[in-house]
Amino acid sequence: MTADPYCEHLASPNPWVLGLSVQLVIGILVSYIPQHVKIIRHGTSAGLSPWWVLLGTISSIAALANILVLPASQHDMACCREISGTACGAALLGVVQIGVQWVCFMTIMVLFLVFFPRDAFAQTPPEHLSPDTPRKRDAVIVGVVSLVSLLTVGLISTIFLFRLPSHLLSWANFLGILAAILSSVQYIPQLYTTWKVKQVLSLSIATMVIQVPGAFLFAFSLWLRVGWEGWSTWFVYCVTGVLQGSLLVMAITFYKKEKDGQAGEHEATETDPLLEQSGSHN
């Protein structure tokens, strides 16, 4: 038995909630793999908006810091001193979920930089590039701002944890609101980029197919843990699900048009020799 009734409750985790959380952790990891693989296989991050990558990275940093400093999460971590390791792991699965998502999106950011489409600059002078073509400075901005954001949020969160613990909820809510706003804005440049090029390119449809319903399940699982008081933690994933769903519909539409166009060209290529032979006989 534990001295804290809340910790006593955590000592016997709900099997249904536990199972859902474990599945979501696995689902988050699996959902990002197609996007990582597609960038690596294609050898380019063309089609990914630099601002989608940057805003998504900062949003994931804010979301991770949000759940780490949230008083409910702090209480869960404190209870780990009084409950078993298994119960502790179950109590912290919400933190693990967002932590895994942060790692996965940070991986996208790194792959975006590593496979940044440099060939466009080698073959075309900068003054002749389309205004929509990502510049080298965009890659630099993404890398530098992401690193500065990680260090800044980490430092400020540490100060609140050890110097201003009474203001943790306010800081957590600010981070949650920031993450929600950035997630909302994040998809605007990617929606614009995809609409402009009218191709999927390095964007993974498989990742979005998994993540769109997963975003709402993720939000629900977090709500079960932090309740309405922690709305700033789960609301961001509702916003993300709606916007990513819009991007998914657009990507599927362009993918089908691209496939139909390729099929039409293939039929025309096969028909041309037959027409030539018919013409020669005439």
What features would you describe in this structure?
This protein has one domain. It is 81% helix and 0% strand. The chain has eleven helices and no strands. About 3% of the residues have low confidence.
Describe the structure concisely.
The chain is an all-alpha fold.
Number of folding domains?
1
Can you write the helix and strand succession as a string?
Answer: HHHHHHHHHHH
Number of strands: 0
Please summarize the sheet with the most strands. none
Beta fraction of the residues?
under 5%
Mean of all residue-level pLDDT scores: 82
Low-confidence stretches: 121-129
Count every helix, treating DSSP H or I runs of 4 or more residues as helices.
11
Say what oligomer this is.
single chain
How far the N terminus sits from the C terminus, by CA atoms, comes to 96 Å
SSE arrangement:
Elements: H1 5-10, H2 15-42, H3 50-69, H4 71-79, H5 85-91, H6 93-114, H7 119-123, H8 136-163, H9 168-197, H10 205-226, H11 231-281
Helix pairs in contact: 2-6, 2-10, 3-6, 3-8, 3-9, 6-8, 9-11, 10-11
